[in-house]
Amino acid sequence: MTGKTLAEKLLSEKSGTDARAGDYVEAEIDVAMAHDITGPLAFQTFHEVAGEDADLFAPDRTIFTIDHHAPADGVQAANNHNAVREFAAKHGANQFDVGDGICHAVLVEEGFVRPGDLVIGADSHSTTYGGLGAFGTGVGSTDLGTALATGDLWFRVPQTMRFEVDGDLQDGVYAKDLILRFIGDVGFDGCTYMAAEYAGSTIESLPIHERLVLSNMAIEMGGKTGLVAPDDRTASYLERQTGTEIDLDDAFRSDDDAVYESVHTYDATELAPQVSKPSNPQNAVDVTEVAGTPLDQIFVGTCTNGRYEDIKIVADILDGETLAPNVRMVVVPASKSVYSHMLNTGIFQTLTEAGAVIQNAGCGPCAGYHQGVLGDGDVSLATANRNFPGREGSMESRVYLGSPATAGVSALYGEITDPREVQTNRYDDTVFAEVLP
To answer: For the Aconitase/3-isopropylmalate dehydratase large subunit alpha/beta/alpha domain, which residue ranges apply (predicted)?
Structure first.
């Protein structure tokens, strides 16, 4: 019998079976999450399945966030917010309100996710948690509502597509560039219902905030989850950031003789900064192919690249400078912690003096709800995860995707610019912890 992939090991553990790719298993859920868009429908399902007075399977491991229409941009949004607050209070769940942060940032920062966990979220980017070695995956509101009552869910064990990267990344090349290249190579549906596993010396050298970027965007190639094997860096991060101590063992790594659907290998030294052209993340090209494209707006933030380290890259580039004429910049940190850290370190002032508008933590511009949507004909460069037609506003707008470094440099010139033309610095995950308790 051949060895197992990380995905097979995680679902074997949670189902109590010898699970292999293609098997169907009933697995125990560790953590469940919903937000102000997906929560109300999940609550309805929960009541239909379990009754009005039923208890949640694990209130202490159930998290609800108000982050998409935050602050409320209309009466319906406000009513949804109240529904989340009322349900969470009634059932004793963890609830994070307007400005506290995007769900995927909150779950990581607050220590709800540990390596080996099975985490489901009523949001497609719940794959993010794989950056910590958890099996994170998105589910529909109906499935979530059922799981809130039962504490388990059926899964088909996915095959694994492995991405191996070795060598040192060039200056100006980051995890965002890696994942855009992967998506460009396999296509937006090339990894459908597979686990995307990221490995190699380059991946092992990445700080946690960059690993989370890779896992977050696994869904953009159809991935069921996106996994990075946890290691000493993971353990150090969790202990420092959340006070969580973990014991790593061989169960958190794919076996040497594991069977993969396919393996894609890369030499990090040859990778250039990437930009995904409108209107699909799979339209990834070297930045040089689109350099010079005029921009109207630059959007920095989202659950993909709204962490402190991401925003600091942009701020360092803009320090003492101003935005190019006729270019606006919207910055949305991923959490209140990031927002506070920006204030404490002077980054907030640096960005506002350069001409940027800084919003409270949330998902507004990324999903095209509010806080800076695009109009007809607008062209934007965003650090977001999607650029489908109308994703950030008008169906007549065009959105390019890139890294924070590409966004920061492009803001100086008002057009898409190769970040290797301006000095950019790489930050490890010790930076954030310098101010946070």
So the answer is: 23-290
Confidence of residue 245 (pLDDT cuts 50, 70, 90): confident
Top-level CATH class of 6-267?
alpha beta
CB 297 within 8 A of CB 327: yes
| CA–CA distance, 232 with 238 (Å, rounded to integer) | 10
In a 10 Å sphere around its CB, with 0-12 CB exposed, 13-18 middle and 19+ buried, how is residue 342 labelled? buried
**Burial class of residue 70 in the structure, from the number of CB atoms within 10 Å of its CB (0-12 exposed, 13-18 middle, 19+ buried):** buried
Q: Find the angle CA(184)-CA(190)-CA(196) to the nearest 5 degrees.
A: 90
Task: Decide: pTM greater than 0.85.
Answer: yes
Q: Which two tokens stand for residue 178?
A: 């890696």
- Domain ranges in the chain? 6-267, 273-426
Q: pLDDT, tens digit, for every residue of 63-101?
A: 999 999 999 999 999 999 999 999 999 999 999 999 999
Q: Which amino acid is at 89?
A: A
Please state, in angstroms and rounded to a whole number, the distance separating the CA atoms of residues 244 and 240. 8
Of 103, 346, 89, 119, residue with least CA distance to 225: 119
What contacts 24+ positions apart, CB below 8 Å, involve 79-83? Answer: 80/36, 80/37, 80/39, 80/40, 81/36, 83/39, 83/40, 83/43
What confidence tens digit (pLDDT) does each residue in 56-66 have?
A: 999 999 999 99
Q: Is the peptide bond before 71 cis (omega within 30 degrees of 0)?
A: yes
HSE of 344 in the Cβ direction (CA atoms, 13 Å)? 14
Q: Is beta strand 135-138 parallel, antiparallel or unpaired with respect to 152-156?
A: unpaired
Binding site: what residues are annotated? Answer: 303, 363, 366
User: Taking the alpha carbons of 118, 122, 124, 125 in that order, is the dihedral positive or negative?
Assistant: negative
Q: Do domains 6-267 and 273-426 have the same CATH topology?
A: yes
Q: What is the CATH number of domain 273-426?
A: 3.30.499.10
Whole-angstrom distance, CA of residue 395 vs CA of residue 277: 15
Question: Is the pLDDT reported for residue 179 higher than 50?
Answer: yes
